[in-house]
Amino acid sequence: MRLPSLSVNQRAPSGPVVMQKGALLFVTLEDEYGKEKVRRALAHVAGARRGSHFGYAEVLAALEQEIGQDLGEFFRSWLNQAGIPQAVRARYEEKIEATK
On the chain, which terminus has fewer CB atoms closer than 10 Å, C or N? Predict the structure, then answer.
């Protein structure tokens, strides 16, 4: 399944596969930048929106502010490619091999 390309103003597609891929995106963000920073950014977005809908553009902006880096390419690699980005897949495969 190939996820469609999204512009900043579009809502992300939904469904079980997309939800699982989204969860993996956040696990990867936490591994890369730290759970505390990612969770503070998400809490900021959720608190600022107070129950109203928000999209990946708002989450991306909060993460970039908290982490202090441009994460646009990171998000595009997840949203515009089918499956898990190869760089991420390789990183975790190396960790699995190291534990064997």
Answer: C
